[in-house]
Request: fold
Amino acid sequence: MEVKKNYIIIPAYEPDWRLIHLLKELNERLNAVFVVVNDGSSREKDEIFCEAENFAVVLYHDKNYGKGRAVKTALSFIKNQEYAGRIVIADADGQHTPEDIALLLSVKEGERNLLITGCRSFQGEIPLRSRLGNQLTRVTFWLLSGKWLKDTQTGLRAFHSSLIPKFLEISGDRYEYETNMLMTCVKQNIRIVEIPIKTIYLEGNKSSHFRAIKDSVRIYMTMLKFVSSSFLSFCIDYLLFGFLLSLTSGLGVVTADAVSNIVARIVSASFNFFLNRNYVFQYKGSLLQSALGYAALALSILAVNTAMLMWLVRDWGLGGLEAKIVVEVSIFFVNFLVQKFFVFKNRPVHTAL
Reply:
């Protein structure tokens, strides 16, 4: 018979005494095992973690590895306990109330292939960087996954322990791990349910250890790689287009633009296919299938690209090089979405729970 036990994971880096207050309240309210991970905090915090050991199992990192690694350390510990049950991940800085943590733990377990997240409303006085950051992340997540979530940066999450093996395989040691967890759920058809929780930012969110530039780069890495790939391909396309334009100038303006655009596009598209398949989307499916899909996309874009280019040159009087830039910018996001969701879409692998 399966023995059930619930767990609360709290990653902690340089916490204050709010961690202890949270643990005390949770102990009074919930029947669960509390797992605190000291993610390489300074020795000045030893007293806090020593006190935390009265309420929780405290695991230690020898240095600061990041929230993602701390969560995986706790999941590995729970996996070795051989008890099944609900797991909740919460923050140590007081932004998640005991009531909301208890709420996620109490949601009726109708299925195991499920991730429950605490969804903040972002109403009222919210720090500007937090408001803008969440807006940007939710749009980026939608572009990357095709799923719209109201709160992609929430750290309050709940799931069944049967998902531990999958979540241990997710890449990322810092805040990008949380985004990668959501992406994994979408790819593997793990349902995501958002539950409204209180929106709390203490002292302008000063306690957050989110590193605006470094962690944002990690979170948006797929989009950044696609932008880089597209930029390199555009450079090849643009330079080759200009070179061929000088060679074919005797054919007439419209014909020279069309011929140069077609040849340059074929070369740059082949280069772009190689980069996107192997490095951007890391597609593992059939080479032939992806090549045919990309070829169909490339031909469609080439037709639209050339038609727009001719229209801008003939009817609007733009020069070929200027028109080329306008056209490429216009079709960038369409190109990304089609490649992401059709050409290089890795099919989910279904496993029995």
